[in-house]
Amino acid sequence: MNAQQLSERLKRVAAFVPEGAVLADIGSDHAYLPCYLALKGVIKGAIAGEVVRGPYDSAKKQVRQEGLEDIIEVRLASGLAAIRQTDGVTAITIAGMGGPLITSILEEGKVKLEGVERLILQANVHGKSIREWAAANQWAIFEEEILKENDKIYEIIVLEPASSPVKYSEEELLMGPILMAEKSSVFIDKWSRESSQWKRILVSMEATEQTLQILAKKKELVDKIHLVEEVLHVENT
């Protein structure tokens, strides 16, 4: 992978960045994503934020090699602290992290989201936490995508500011309203695997002392299995 040829996962993230955006790519690593978008002429400016010195240095080098220093600025900062009010950021990408970490970055940097028109969030696991954060903070799910690459399944959740409060059902929070409607083969594969794993955990829990904590966990798993099987059953009827 390089700035000219992204992984399929990052290519799909890039596809949701609006034309003419000022982008903040948080956890930018080698800055491949903003470099790719700048080389394609999609964005008019970008901030590549990195909290770790090694990837920050790699990103600086990459931007310099591509001759993009007038378009992309690399900053060493934690999360949305990389963004300044004067940047005029209109889109933010956060990719390659777990949903809870992405959520914590958004929550800690909420003040930096004013004026942002789109969040493109790629969760490796636990996309539910992103949807819960969106509903709690008046961001609507604009688009979702699920894909498999190198036998790993990823979700992309695209959020835009909502003009009124948004509400999602438990099924939608867990599995994604748009992904549920589409029911792609990757979606079915993911949730069939998850359901099977939860059933194995339930069986193993039978051998432990049935404390209140264990009973609560069992109920949570049973409820999630029912939600998933209900949604998947629609596909099979």
TrEMBL record:
SUPFAM superfamilies: S-adenosyl-L-methionine-dependent methyltransferases (SSF53335). InterPro entries: SAM-dependent_MTases_sf (IPR029063), TrmK (IPR006901). It comes from the Bacteria. Pfam families: TrmK (PF04816). Signal peptide: none annotated. This is tRNA (Adenine(22)-N(1))-methyltransferase.
